[in-house]
Specification:
single chain, five-stranded parallel β-sheet, 9 helices, binds adenosine-5'-diphosphate
């Protein structure tokens, strides 16, 4: 099963993608986590992207796509995966389509919450890039670059929308129910 989680920053994609991946026995692949690991271990990629992450801008597609396509060749992806944070713009969709095929995703889970909830959660979370400026930039980048992908995947018949507000366990259960209904 290949599932993509889409949603604004702060909506809880990472938390839910991890939980659903664990329940399904497939890896959760988060570009944000991968970049943060590179920054933390000061690899050459990490040094190149640290400032971009801090400002909440998108890492250039060439770097992101290369890192992801390499990850998707790892043997643990054989039975599928949960993608979290990639693709995040149209060029990345095309890169993914080229690598796994236009119809290779089985579902796209869209998590939803209001901008007020998103801002509140991120500022409370306090990750290094959760400053007021970066948060507001990431919300803009999401609206401009990533939200349009929902329409594209809806046209492919893949979208499953789930309310991202409430109890973590209940949201996981809603996602699982929605996916079961989709297949
Ligand atoms: P959030 O969804 O809260 O912004 P993520 O962990 O998904 O958090 O992403 C953190 C940062 O990593 C982004 O602001 C961006 O700089 C970078 N990033 C993650 N995924 C991508 C991607 N697909 N393309 C470009 N940059 C990315």
């Amino acid at each position: 099963m290949r599932i993509l989680f889409l949603g604004a920053p702060g909506v809880g994609k990472g938390t839910q993608a991890e939980r659903v991946g664990e329940a399904m026995g497939i890896p959760h692949i988060s570009t944000g986590e991968m970049f943060r690991r590179h920054v933390g271990s000061r690899t050459s990629l990490g040094l190149r992207v640290a400032e971009i992450l801090a400002q909440g801008d998108l890492v250039p597609d060439v770097l992101t796509v290369e890192m992801m396509l390499e990850r998707l060749r790892d043997p643990d992806t054989i039975n599928g995966y949960i993608l979290d944070g990639f693709p995040r713009n149209l060029a990345q969709v095309h890169a993914l389509d080229g690598a796994i095929g236009d119809y290779a995703l089985d579902a796209v889970v869209v998590l939803e919450a209001s901008n007020e909830v998103l801002k509140e959660r991120m500022l409370a979370r306090g990750r290094a890039d959760d400053t007021e400026e970066s948060v507001s930039n990431r919300l803009d980048v999401y609206e401009r670059e990533t939200a349009p992908l929902i329409h594209l995947y809806r046209e492919r018949g893949l979208v499953v929308s789930v309310d991202g507000v409430g109890d973590v366990e209940k949201i996981t259960a809603s996602i699982q129910t929605a996916l079961a209904g989709h297949f």
